[in-house]
């Protein structure tokens, strides 16, 4: 009988070398860890019992010594058009996170969370309104992606893109987020190309600098939302710590070092940041940066009085940027009927529980 040391870890928190070491402690040969890795990330099994290449004793050992994930499905919603699906997951400590699948023509994008809650406090964001609970582990991040990967494998419509744009600030949980993305990119496992992954940040300058220094290959998106320091501080309180000027300087450093284009995100709010003046100021700030601007009309939340900008103001904003030769896209909002904005489903469930 193998000499087994008890562990309560999720299997998805472990790297391949860590799995190899663990199975070796249990008395199993190294090739079993590679088989397990293949089953988890290539075959996309949903339980240890599905790994039929393993002897029954090993499956029993895995079931007794490791958790096959830690997320519990609380509720699932689909938009009326069928293009957006939102899942609310419960974590082992009772905290809740959201993950969204969005369909765009031939693309199927998973928007995953990196934290339970968020400390950035962006006033128009449901997650920012609820405050910060904790960072997610590597496994809790990976599991969100694999949940939808299994679903899409059955539908024979595999995932095409990943975005760290769900609940939380990815650079506030930098180490675990990057470790999770390294797992998704592993050619022996999930083998998801880094160029199909986007990491979105509100502009934590140390994280921007580390992302640059680490020569990360994922796409980078920075949420600006305002082109003047006073307005950005009103919308994004973190701006008091890292100014717009500092953030844009770090963005220039990233582009100049990586020679890659950066995306600037802009939640367009009626009568707040949708003016011609803001568009001109933004263009002046970023005209020397290799970039693309994503304009996203605000997804309204219950605790913020602002409304989505009109289609006309979005087009006018875009026209201003075009005069500076700055490429810009006005994004189609997804899942409005199921409150697909970050944190909205979790907040709705919490309110329901209190009623």
Question: Any key phrases for this structure?
Answer:
elongated; 12 strands; disordered N terminus; 355 residues; TIM Barrel; 12 helices; two-stranded antiparallel ribbon; alpha/beta; DNA polymerase, domain 1
Quick recap:
The chain has 355 residues and is an alpha/beta fold. It contains twelve helices and twelve strands. The longest helix is centred in the middle third of the chain and has 17 residues, at 138-154.
Average predicted local confidence, pLDDT: 91
Strands side by side in the biggest sheet: 1-2-3-4-7-8-9-10-11-12
Number of domains: 2
Instruction: Say which CATH homologous superfamily of the largest domain is assigned.
Output: Aldolase class I
What class do helices, strands and sheet pairing give? alpha/beta
* Unreliable sequence segments: 1-7, 351-355
Instruction: Please trace the helix and strand order, writing H or E for each element.
Output: HHHEEEEEHEHEHEHEHHEHEHEH
Percentage of residues assigned to helices:
25-40%
> What's the CATH architecture of the largest domain?
Alpha-Beta Barrel
Helices, by number, come to: 12
CATH C-level name of the largest domain: Alpha Beta
Number of DSSP-assigned strands: 12
Strand content: 15-25%
Ends: how far apart? 53 Å
């Amino acid at each position: 009988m193998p000499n087994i040391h008890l562990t309560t870890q999720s299997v998805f928190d472990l790297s391949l070398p860590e799995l190899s070491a663990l199975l070796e402690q249990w008395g199993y040969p190294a090739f079993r860890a590679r088989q397990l890795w293949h089953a988890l990330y290539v075959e996309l099994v949903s339980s240890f019992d599905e790994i039929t290449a393993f002897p029954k004793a090993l499956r029993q050992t895995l079931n007794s010594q490791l958790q096959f994930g830690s997320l519990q499905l609380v509720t699932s919603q689909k938009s009326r058009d069928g293009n957006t699906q939102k899942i609310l997951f419960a974590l082992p400590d009772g905290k809740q996170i959201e993950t969204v699948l969005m369909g765009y023509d031939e693309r199927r994008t998973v928007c995953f969370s990196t934290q339970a809650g968020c400390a950035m406090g962006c006033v128009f964001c449901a997650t920012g309104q609820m405050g910060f609970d904790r960072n997610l582990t590597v496994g809790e991040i990976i599991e969100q992606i694999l949940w939808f990967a299994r679903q899409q494998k059955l539908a024979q419509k595999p995932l095409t893109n990943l975005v760290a744009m769900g609940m939380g600030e990815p650079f506030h949980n930098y180490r675990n987020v990057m470790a999770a993305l390294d797992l998704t990119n592993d050619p022996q496992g999930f083998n998801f190309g880094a160029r199909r992954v986007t990491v979105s940040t509100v502009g934590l300058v140390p994280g921007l600098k580390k992302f640059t220094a680490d020569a990360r290959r994922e796409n980078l998106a920075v949420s600006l939302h305002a082109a003047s320091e006073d307005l950005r501080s009103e919308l994004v309180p973190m701006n008091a710590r890292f100014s717009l000027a500092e953030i844009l300087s770090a963005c220039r450093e990233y582009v100049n070092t990586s020679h890659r284009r950066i995306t600037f995100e802009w939640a367009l709010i009626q009568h707040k940041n949708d003016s011609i003046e803001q568009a001109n100021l933004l263009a002046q700030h970023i005209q020397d940066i290799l970039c693309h601007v994503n304009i996203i009309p605000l997804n309204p939340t219950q605790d913020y009085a602002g409304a989505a900008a009109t289609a006309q103001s979005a087009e006018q904003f875009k026209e201003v940027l075009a005069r500076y030769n700055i490429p810009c896209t006005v994004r189609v909002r997804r899942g409005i009927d199921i409150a697909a904005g970050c944190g909205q489903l979790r907040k709705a469930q919490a309110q329901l529980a209190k009623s």
